[in-house]
């Protein structure tokens, strides 16, 4: 750590508080804590009335709803059930005939730096054209379409086009392997796949279409009748006659008009797969009405969006952040947004700062892992320091995906925000659809490392294992006590798992987020202490330890058993450490290195590069209780390099700890 960053850290011990400036408060949509408290009070007084008002004001309904919340089949809550709407009409058609129609909707900057812009009117024409392509391919309302796309305007077009015809999209992040893609196409029963020939990242052309081919060749995906390919680069790819076609060729044959298909508010807008505590990813199903309401409203509330803003969320559309704050929220709110194809370090680690300067970005929303890597880059190379770019256009900064450590927060605040821009540290999840606990830029005094307070109407609390509230200052389990409009509706095809995972009986019907948290004694501010289940957060990406373990033991010719844990990491938040028992003898030296590499590559192929363990340790066995349960707590200690001082008398094989503590 540089002298500068350690100095910053020491100021944090004082627990500094950063209130918004008077000017920010005066100009904000939710102005001051009084504004925040007034909304909270409205929700407390009449919960359904509060949400009904917001849903009427923020969503365009083709048919108005008469019932706000239906709890008759809890926890399968229904919101605005008899209302009808179309998500794409709410993002595009709504702006036609208003001054927004000729406003730039998207400023796209490609990996290589080329810039393309589309207005709302142009985007509507393209979305309609592609919606007609999907219809021509036989895709119907209720069908699932898997998207395996790069970060491009076309990615957003494909999502919006699905929404327009009432098809449910399932976006798979372009970094997932063919095996992971196959599993998702199959689970969703997709009728079509939309992809690109290649994606460009960091100056490299990376295959997408070839991976789709591999996934479909694995069999069991017979439902997928067509593959539509966006030609991102001139490089040719294999095209299967009768199944594959090019997006531009198909679009050229279609009209630029397509009437939106109105759907019920509960109609599944999308299914997005995420990791849970078992080996199988969960298809998180979201609604149309409640989801869209929250995506739009949190743009206004959390980001205090103004007509003149240039909004930039750096998340990929393969994650929930890219759904709510790229594909839907900004468009529903009529914002101009930046979409970036590449990586923050190409051609140099000042790409973000140069892009903020060039496009006069006003609201910048990124992940702590990106900030930490850019701090490191700026510490070692002055020329990429944010001070070398003009960042004066910025007015609000955001953070998402994992806890932001106070020293990274301070650096972001000072060097990117010029001590002028509030940082909204937004806590939420794939399952919550949008922000849950976050500061409001024109209201909440900020404390570095804290996501502060729940948004109005969101009943977040910290409880013990029996569901009783714990006092401020004591850690506990983060729950949401009341249903909210943008919550997960079910796990695609597995309602029982939905109930068990999120509404366990002992928690009185509260929604279980899976995170630990603590509220500060002075302000009642929330601080997230990390996952309490077997889920890791690596660079803001959620990974199930069981998923990685299943991948490792699937290499059944050499692996007998595996246990995966997380270890704190300065750059990635958590790092994946795998303890592996081989079928053969415990390897040492170069053999151990070669085997570790083989297994890492294997996991990369089974799940994707993001799941590759940072470290693999081999042993004859794993520490187990006499009943055969793996003692993960001990493995976490070993992974951190701690000497084990706990009582190990319940262990079947205490000697194994020594062996695993040594690197092979
Ligand atoms: C998990 C959800 C939220 C969209 C991106 C990740 C962690 C997320 C924060 C934050 C502390 C955070 C939690 C959560 N997380 N945001 N601001 N502070 N932790 O979505 O992949 O569903 O992961 O990310 O552990 O449960 P996700």
Automatic annotation (TrEMBL):
Ranges where the Acetyl-coenzyme A synthetase N-terminal domain occurs: 36-91
Binding site for ATP: 401-403, 425-430, 515, 531, 542
Catalysed conversion reaction: acetate + ATP + CoA = acetyl-CoA + AMP + diphosphate
Positions with a binding annotation for CoA: 201-204, 321, 539
Domain AMP-dependent synthetase/ligase: start-end pairs: 100-484
AMP-binding enzyme C-terminal domain sequence ranges: 547-629
Keyword Methyltransferase (UniProt): no
UniProt modified residues of type N6-acetyllysine: 629
Modification(s) after translation: Acetylated. Deacetylation by the SIR2-homolog deacetylase activates the enzyme.
Keyword Transcription regulation: no
GO cellular component: cytosol
GO biological process: acetyl-CoA biosynthetic process from acetate
One annotated GO molecular function: metal ion binding
Chain residues that bind Mg(2+): 553, 559
Domain of life: Bacteria
CC cofactor: Mg(2+)
Keywords associated with the record: Acetylation, ATP-binding, Ligase, Magnesium, Metal-binding, Nucleotide-binding
InterPro entries: Ac_CoA_lig, ACAS_N, AMP-bd_C, AMP-bd_C_sf, AMP-binding_CS, AMP-dep_synth/lig_dom, ANL_N_sf
Gene3D superfamilies, per the entry: 3.30.300.30, N-terminal domain of ligase-like
Any matching Pfam family: ACAS_N
NCBIfam families: Ac_CoA_lig_AcsA (TIGR02188), PRK00174.1 (NF001208)
Family in the record: Belongs to the ATP-dependent AMP-binding enzyme family.
HAMAP family: Ac_CoA_synth
UniProt protein name: Acetyl-coenzyme A synthetase
Protein encoded by which gene: acsA
């Amino acid at each position: 750590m540089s002298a500068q960053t350690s100095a910053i850290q020491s100021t944090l011990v004082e627990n500094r508080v950063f209130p918004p400036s008077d000017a920010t408060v005066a100009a904000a949509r939710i102005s001051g804590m009084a504004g925040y408290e007034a909304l909270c009070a409205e929700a407390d007084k009449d919960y359904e009335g509060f949400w009904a008002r917001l849903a009427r004001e923020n969503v365009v309904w083709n048919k108005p709803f008469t019932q706000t919340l239906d709890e008759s089949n809890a926890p399968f809550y229904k919101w605005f059930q008899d209302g009808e709407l179309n998500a794409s009409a709410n993002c595009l058609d709504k702006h036609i005939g208003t001054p927004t129609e000729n406003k730039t909707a998207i400023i796209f900057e490609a990996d290589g730096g080329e810039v393309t812009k589309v207005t709302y009117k142009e985007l509507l024409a393209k979305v309609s054209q592609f919606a007609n392509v999907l219809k021509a391919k036989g895709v119907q309302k209720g069908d699932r379409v898997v998207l395996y796309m790069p970060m491009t305007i076309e990615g957003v077009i494909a999502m919006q086009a699905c929404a327009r015809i009432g098809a449910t999209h399932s976006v798979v992040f372009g970094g997932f392997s063919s095996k992971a893609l196959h599993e998702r196409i199959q689970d969703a029963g997709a009728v079509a796949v939309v992809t690109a020939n290649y994606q460009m990242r960091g100056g490299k052309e990376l295959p997408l279409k070839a991976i789709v081919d591999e996934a479909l060749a694995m069999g069991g995906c017979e439902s997928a009748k067509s593959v539509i390919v966006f030609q991102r680069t001139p490089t040719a790819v294999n095209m299967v006659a009768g199944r594959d076609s090019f997006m531009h060729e198909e679009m050229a044959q279609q009209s630029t008009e397509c009437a939106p298909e109105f759907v019920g508010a509960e109609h599944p807008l999308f299914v997005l797969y995420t990791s849970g505590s078992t080996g199988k990813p969960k298809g998180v199903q979201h609604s149309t009405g409640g989801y869209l309401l929250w995506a739009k409203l949190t743009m206004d509330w959390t980001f205090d969006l103004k007509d003149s803003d240039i909004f930039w969320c750096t998340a990929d559309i393969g994650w929930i952040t890219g759904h709510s704050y790229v594909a839907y929220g900004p468009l529903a709110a009529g914002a101009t947004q930046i979409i970036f194809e590449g990586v923050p370090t190409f051609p140099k680690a000042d790409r973000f700062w140069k892009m903020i300067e060039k496009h006069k970005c006003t609201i910048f929303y990124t992940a702590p892992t990106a900030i930490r890597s850019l701090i490191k880059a700026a510490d070692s190379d002055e020329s990429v320091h944010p001070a070398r770019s003009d960042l004066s256009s910025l007015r609000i900064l955001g953070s998402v995906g994992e806890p932001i450590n106070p020293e990274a927060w301070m650096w972001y605040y000072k060097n990117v925000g010029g001590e002028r821009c509030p940082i909204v540290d937004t806590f939420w999840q794939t399952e919550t659809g949008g922000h849950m606990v976050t500061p409001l830029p024109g209201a909440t005094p900020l404390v570095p490392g804290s996501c502060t307070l729940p948004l109005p109407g969101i009943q977040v609390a910290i409880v013990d294992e029996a569901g009783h509230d714990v006092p401020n200052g004591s850690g506990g389990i983060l729950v949401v006590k009341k249903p909210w409009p943008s919550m997960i509706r079910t796990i695609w095809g597995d309602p029982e798992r939905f109930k068990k995972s999120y509404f366990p009986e002992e928690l009185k019907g509260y929604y279980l987020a899976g995170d630990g948290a603590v509220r500060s004694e002075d302000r009642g501010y929330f601080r997230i202490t990390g996952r309490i289940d077997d889920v890791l957060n690596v660079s803001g990406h959620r990974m199930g330890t069981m998923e990685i373990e299943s991948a490792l033991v699937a290499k059944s010719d050499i692996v007998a058993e595996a246990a995966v844990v997380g270890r704190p990491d300065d750059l990635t938040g958590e790092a994946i450490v795998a303890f592996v028992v081989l079928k053969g003898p415990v390897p040492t030296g170069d053999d151990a290195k070669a085997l570790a590499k083989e297994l890492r590559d294997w996991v990369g192929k089974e799940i994707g590069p993001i799941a590759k363990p940072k470290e693999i340790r081999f042993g004859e066995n794993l520490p187990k209780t006499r009943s055969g349960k793996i003692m993960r707590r001990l493995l976490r200690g070993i992974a951190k390099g701690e000497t084990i001082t706990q009582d190990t008398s319940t262990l079947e094989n205490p000697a194994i700890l020594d062996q695993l503590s040594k690197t092979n």
